[in-house]
């Protein structure tokens, strides 16, 4: 099995000299069809489910999966397929939309911090605090609504301001890593051509109309600005303890398989085991067994 965590066509552990243009949106390793990948995908889902039970029982790690992408890149469908075998009690998905008035009253990391998964669980962020160096960079007027004392006009959003935001994110993830969080960050890399195709499908197919927003079309005008923002995001925040995985996403089936494999490889690397009972606990079990077996039906 190809180790995607070690594959530099996908895994970024250092953002030095990172250029998004060097990453193909359409490649699929050695898989030639959706069908050939489907069988492996089902095997991965079953193995993830078994390991998730060990993760929950061992209760000393938490998995945090962060998904960032352009509109229509497939975040929702990827999460749905990869986590289809997971016990819901050991998993939580949080989708972050436009900040509420309460969230704006706090620092930009607060609303995600209160949604972090507990140890033993897998937490999934559909968008995250990274929006604060993505959409806010393309639309800096959003920052003015946050009422930051150091930002009175857009001119205050200088290089130093963004450097401080990246620094805050790096420090936050370092803190989480030190406290048992395993951080997996996925950028679903879709081409402009494929995004257009998916938008047209949402318009032409009645059962997909609900997914379409005209605002998504407006955001296509800022394609190059978002490209720069995504590139700098990865360049500034890719670390060994918090890698970015640039997932080719023009083929949804491959994106789903790649994410599933990375999660599986991560769980396997933790060497998860069910807790072992001590002598006193085993004695209690034996006593309970004897009492149950001695009961009259």
UniProtKB/TrEMBL annotation:
Organism: Solitalea canadensis (strain ATCC 29591 / DSM 3403 / JCM 21819 / LMG 8368 / NBRC 15130 / NCIMB 12057 / USAM 9D) (Flexibacter canadensis)
Keywords: Kinase, Transferase
PANTHER family: POLYPHOSPHATE:AMP PHOSPHOTRANSFERASE, POLYPHOSPHATE:AMP PHOSPHOTRANSFERASE-RELATED
GO process annotations (BP): polyphosphate metabolic process
SUPFAM superfamilies recorded: P-loop containing nucleoside triphosphate hydrolases
Domain of life: Bacteria
Domain named Polyphosphate kinase-2-related: residues: 43-271
GO function terms (MF aspect): polyphosphate kinase activity
One Pfam family in the UniProt entry: PPK2
Name of the protein in question: Polyphosphate:nucleotide phosphotransferase, PPK2 family
Lineage: Bacteria, Pseudomonadati, Bacteroidota, Sphingobacteriia, Sphingobacteriales
Similarity-based family: Belongs to the polyphosphate kinase 2 (PPK2) family. Class I subfamily.
